[in-house]
Amino acid sequence: MPRGVYDRTHIVRKLSPEHIAAMVAGKRAKMKPLAERFWSKVNKNGPNGCWIFTGHIGGRGYGTIWDGAKVRTAHQISWELTRGERPGGFVLDHICRNRECCNPDHLRLVTPRQNAVENNDSPFALNAQKTHCRKCGTEFHPDNVRWIPSRGPKGTPLAARVCLTCVRRRSPGSRLQPTTREDALAAARAKYGKEPCTSERTP
Length: 203
Description:
The protein is an alpha+beta fold. The protein folds into two domains: about 30-110, no CATH class; about 125-200, no CATH class. The chain has eight helices and nine strands. It has helices at about 10-15, 15-25, 35-40, 75-85, 110-115, 125-130, 165-170, 180-190, and strands spanning about 40-45, 50-55, 65, 70-75, 90-95, 105-110, 145-150, 155-165, 200. A hairpin with a 4-residue loop joins strand 3 (about 65) and strand 4. The longest helix is centred in the last third of the chain and has 12 residues, at about 180-190. The radius of gyration is 24 Å and the shape is elongated. The chain starts with 8 loop residues before the first helix and ends with a strand.
């Protein structure tokens, strides 16, 4: 094939007759309603009752679709089409742990912190689940933990957990006192001017 000439046959095969006719006429095909496009890409016969999204799958494993203004995740569209708008301050969590699933019965409304910590193997979740310091083995307790304002991904405020037992072993004369996570998040929010992160860092 000559340089600069590309075979687009594989692209044309995926287009509907209406799109091909519009391309030939030099016009833009009218987009079908979101609900019609969405449900045509849902297989309701997936394993364990999952509704598998057969359209585009993004890099994080979630189905994605264009809603006419921006790209949205498939499970969010499914929830809105069947249950209505999602309340503010809540996110959707997959009970089935299958990111391609868009069955509304397999979704639940949770807080951002719940979504980051529960049923999650991310570093934030693993740290939040720790009950003992990984360095000295001391159990985390309000009397031996100091929370300090910190900053996480994209400048998001978070609270970093510091084991005071380790601090006192390194510096016997330390006068650091225990603080609460809530106070540290408030200070981080005031310092960085954003919403706090939903998890924490640990030593």
